[in-house]
Amino acid sequence: MKRLSIDDELHLDRPMDDLHHAAVINVLRTANLFSAVGATFLRQYDLTEAQFNVLLSLKYKERNVTQSDLGERLVVTRASITSVLDKLEGKGLVRRDTVEGNRRIYHVSLTPAGLALINKVEPSYRERVHRVMGGLAESEMRTLIDYLERVRAELHDEASHS
């Protein structure tokens, strides 16, 4: 497998001299590429990344999930999750049921059409993810996950001090 340095990918005339910044740029560039490739893949199913993530989250739920729960799981704003759910509901893929005694809260679930769609999309999606990540051994993936979790913990700590 050919490696692509961030310096080459960004067509820099000289290498970055700040290793911390180079690492962050690598993470961001990789995330953006995952997002772009994923968006192209999901477009054939008339889904956005956010819509796919909602469907996937709902498929694997084991209890009632509210809009707020989904917003927290997917780290999106209240307005964003409402918009995503409006679109999915309009496509007949999810439904929102009012919670008895509280008209402001809705439980969200997949419709049969939503379940059928996520069951159709998920295997192809996973196949692509496995292909992209196939150049890493299992131990390398676990190490990568560990590193990213540590960085996210630092970011959460930084955000709480801001």
Global mean pLDDT: 91
Distance between the termini: 41 Å
Rounded to an integer, what's the Rg over CA atoms? Answer: 19 Å
Secondary-structure element order, N to C: HHHEHHEEHH
Assigned CATH architecture of the domain at 48-120: Orthogonal Bundle
Low-confidence stretches: none
CATH topology (level 3) name of the domain at 48-120: Arc Repressor Mutant, subunit A
Number of beta strands: 3
What structural class do the secondary elements suggest?
Answer: mainly alpha
β-strand percent reads: 5-15%
Main CATH class of the domain at 48-120: Mainly Alpha
| Helix proportion range | 55-70%
Q: Could you give the order of strands across the largest sheet?
A: 1-3-2
- The dominant shape is globular
Number of helices: 7
Give the CATH superfamily of the domain at 48-120: Winged helix-like DNA-binding domain superfamily/Winged helix DNA-binding domain
The largest β sheet comes out as: 3 strands, antiparallel
Overall description:
This protein has seven helices and three strands. The chain is mostly helical and 162 residues long. It has a domain at 48-120: Orthogonal Bundle (Arc Repressor Mutant, subunit A). The protein has a three-stranded antiparallel β-sheet with strand order 1-3-2. β2 (94-99) and β3 form a beta hairpin. α3 (49-59) packs across α6 (112-133) and α4 (67-74) packs across α5 (78-90).
Attribute tags:
single chain; 162 residues; mainly alpha; Arc Repressor Mutant, subunit A; three-stranded antiparallel beta sheet; 3 strands; globular
